[in-house]
Amino acid sequence: MAQITLKNIAHSYMDAPSEEADYALKEVDHVWRDGEAYALLGPSGCGKTTLLNIVSGLLRPSHGRVLFGGEDVTDMPTAERNIAQVFQFPVVYDTMTVRENLAFPLKNRGIEAQTITERVQRVAAMIGMEDELNRKARGLTADAKQKISLGRGMVRDDVNALLFDEPLTVIDPHMKWELRTQLKRLHGQFGHTMIYVTHDQTEALTFADHVVVMHDGRVVQIGTPEELFERPAHTFVGYFIGSPGMNLLPAEVRGDRAVIDGHEVMLGSGYDDLSGKVEIGIRPEFVRLTDEGGLPATIKRVEDVGRHRLVRAEVLGRPVNVIADEGGPLPSENAQVAFDPARINVYANDWRVEGRAA
């Protein structure tokens, strides 16, 4: 296992990048602590796989250095970094049995036969393939082959890091949940440093200790699931995390109040004068429908999603989502929405501004 340090890492696929927009990965300077589980989360094309490939050695960064446990591995090939990597699509040896596939990384390292047998059996149980151990991989389905890839990555306990690049894409939904749970259990048991790339917020938030949210080639926030939900550092994080995401409303902020089209909203903190694009952000969970004391709203649609209702409203000409109790009454007319002041975030030019005690 190893602490992974990224020192001023940036990468461009162009021969002579001249401006920031030329970089697929903008500068990253961060330490991933030994033994923790991280998720790289963001939409396609945001730079997360580029960053993972730099860590694994499949790609050399245009700038910066990569250190494993203090050792500079920037120019070290993948084979010498002592990592295990599982890719989006399964990589297995079709002519081998499931057992032989799982044992392959251990045999290559000269592990004794008894230990190999024990680890293969343990991992086969984790991925639900105990009954398939003697089958050739060639005739297996894509999701079964991906389970073998996952198992082969998990069978070693001496790696510096386990890297997963969208490994559950071809896995059926029920098995996704099972394998995420098993990966989390493995991490708790053995304490490997794990880095998991995904575009799925549920996968990221249920797997990782810390989530690295990426947008347009840039790391916009690294935090716990709670921090990403409660205090999104960037409006993209507020939009991308949550279902639905954070409501954003343009506003003028005056001390401990926000003014939206002449209507005042109390804030939980005070703020100095802000310039540029100023917005307030509030999660749908912290918006309530009321008959008075809020902002005028028009209810456009109500969606019953089981445990609660999702109310799609229009507030001062802008869409606002409200999560309402399943059995609670809804205003039939003259609806208004009120915000929990303590849950309002303030943004200037898309970045969260820290307030002071109001």
UniProtKB/TrEMBL annotation:
Main location: membrane
Stated family: Belongs to the ABC transporter superfamily.
PANTHER family in alphabetical order: ABC TRANSPORTER ATP-BINDING PROTEIN, MALTODEXTRIN IMPORT ATP-BINDING PROTEIN MSMX
Lineage summary: Bacteria, Pseudomonadati, Pseudomonadota, Alphaproteobacteria, Hyphomicrobiales
Name the record gives this protein: ABC transporter ATP-binding protein
Any one cellular-component term (Gene Ontology): ATP-binding cassette (ABC) transporter complex, substrate-binding subunit-containing
Gene3D superfamilies: 2.40.50.100, Nucleic acid-binding proteins, P-loop containing nucleotide triphosphate hydrolases
ABC transporter domain residues: 4-241
Keywords per UniProt: ATP-binding, Cell membrane, Membrane, Nucleotide-binding, Transport
Pfam families, per database record: ABC_tran (PF00005), OB_MalK (PF17912)
Molecular-function GO term, any one: ATP binding
Source organism: Notoacmeibacter marinus
Domain of life of the native organism: Bacteria
PROSITE patterns reported in the protein's UniProt record: ABC_TRANSPORTER_2
Signal peptide per UniProt: none
